[in-house]
Amino acid sequence: MVVLKSAAELATMREAGRVVAQTLKAVSEAAAPGVTLLELDDLAREMLAERGAKSSFLHYHPSFAPIPYPAVLCLSVNDAIVHGIPDARRLEPGDLLSIDFGAHIDGYHGDAAVTIGVGEIDAAAQRLSDVCRQALEAGIAEARPGARLGDISHAVQTVCRAARYGMPTGYGGHGVGTAMHEDPHVPNEGRPGRGLTLRPGLVLAIEPMVIESGSDRHRLRRDGWTVSTVDGSRAAHWEHTVAVTDDGPVILTGL
After folding, report:
1. Cα separations (Å) of 29 from 24, 33, 83?
2. Which of 13, 108, 185, 206 is the most exposed place for a label (fewest CB within 10 A)?
3. How far apart are CA 248 and CA 245, in angstroms?
4. At residue 109, what are phi and psi to the nearest 5 degrees?
5. 3-state secondary structure labels for all residues of 2-22
6. Among 239, 170, 244, 247, which residue's Cα sits nearest to residue 207?
7. What is the DSSP string of the chain?
8. 255 residues of the chain, pLDDT tens digit each
């Protein structure tokens, strides 16, 4: 069921989204060579506590997962696409790190992700992240009243495929509200003019993911959470929570 949000609900979601944005910024700045993934997760936990927010990810237990999610960040390095669990791994110069984070205030969620380089990264890695972010921006631009869900999907797909990148089959965005994952599913590929008609009050997490080699194949690691490329090539992931309003798309997880 698709639930439209009131102005008051959107205001609360904007508060949660601001916590998400501030935390992603702080974690991105702290992600230096030698820092462990667990140290980054600790930083995010501290920021949640300081801001009176709660994690959307910690203890989340969907039906596909063997265990509840044990962290507040998803940290996916190099060939990990999404849902990487923080551990004692130390970041190395040149790593490509995707940081996904969700928080809720008074039961309303915000969800966003960025991909950054650790130290200096090569041009191909920078292009991978840049194209993924451009795909996100293209999708957000279509999130306006009267457009169709397929318009968002097609915009994301067009940017990613033009760059000859793969897109993990079956993965995409979702509605956001009093649950982190609500209807509708937001595919990263689709046909324009098809699907749900967008209305003011609809809130969507738009989140392209790209695979450097051009393959769409992926695998689930033994931890039951981390989704990785099959061929070992690198991946990138960008995401924002976006409200459809009479004035056009509004990013709720911006600074």
Report:
1. 9, 11, 20
2. 185
3. 5
4. -100, 155
5. CCCCCHHHHHHHHHHHHHHHH
6. 239
7. ---PPPHHHHHHHHHHHHHHHHHHHHHHHH--TT-BHHHHHHHHHHHHHHHT-EESSTT---TT-SS----SEEEEETTEEE-PPP-SPBP-TT-EEEEEEEEEETTEEEEEEEEEESSS--HHHHHHHHHHHHHHHHHHHT-STT-BHHHHHHHHHHHHHHTT-B--TT-EEEE-SSSSSEEEEEESS--TT-SPBP-TT-EEEE--EEETTS---EEE-TTSS-EEESS---EEE-BEEEEEETTEEEETT--
8. 999 999 999 999 999 999 999 999 999 999 999 999 999 999 999 999 999 999 999 999 999 899 999 999 999 999 999 999 999 999 999 999 999 999 999 999 999 999 999 999 999 999 999 999 999 999 999 999 999 999 999 999 999 999 999 999 999 999 999 999 999 999 999 999 999 999 999 999 999 999 999 999 999 999 999 999 999 999 999 999 999 999 999 999 999
**Residue that the structure tokens 């809130």 belong to:** 203
